[in-house]
Specification:
Blueprint: H1 3-10, E1 15-17, H2 23-34, E2 40-44, H3 45-50, E3 60-64, E4 70-83, H4 89-95, H5 102-119, H6 126-129, E5 133-141, H7 143-153
Parallel strand pairs: 1-3
Antiparallel strand pairs: 2-5, 3-4, 4-5
């Protein structure tokens, strides 16, 4: 049994996934989660609705690094709908990236949402992103899992 399978046995119905869109970003964002800096994530509501088994409040999720290795398990503690134009400084800080402020966060978020939209052949201009409804998910890092992962990998 590999480590992901062992974690899925411990956390039934959990899913394993990376946070980023490339191996370097997967590693960086997983590290921010492990350090307790990244405590929220967001994406388009359309992408959430398109998922076969989207995360839900109370669900456990296995976070993978850029090599598809598990680094921690998170639990979704809350979710809320937020319009792009209503993104707050607090959400930018909880996203945990960059200098934790909203100014550099918004253009990155707009790029991410637009890229997803274009990949789905849903032609959305950058201008229309400001009216987009997003799903903001708040997570809690399960510190007991760090010990579980460490015991298995040590």
């Amino acid at each position: 049994m590999n480590l992901v399978d062992a974690l899925k046995a411990k956390y039934p119905d959990s899913q394993a996934w990376q946070i980023g869109d490339n191996a370097d970003m997967d590693n960086e964002l997983a590290d921010l989660v492990m350090k307790g800096i990244k405590t929220a994530s967001c994406g388009s509501l359309a992408s959430y609705l398109a998922e076969k088994s989207p995360p839900r409040i109370g669900s456990h999720n296995i976070i993978l690094d850029g090599r598809d290795e598990p680094v921690c398990v998170i639990r979704m503690t809350s979710m809320r709908l937020v319009r792009f134009s209503d993104v707050t400084e607090e959400l930018a800080r909880k996203e945990g990236e960059g200098d934790l402020s909203i100014k550099p966060f918004l253009p990155e978020l707009a790029f991410t949402l637009t890229t997803w939209s274009l990949s789905q052949k849903n032609l959305m201009s950058l201008r229309s992103v400001t009216g987009l409804t997003m799903l903001s998910a708040h997570i809690k890092y399960n510190s007991s899992v760090a010990h579980f992962l460490g015991a298995i990998t040590a």
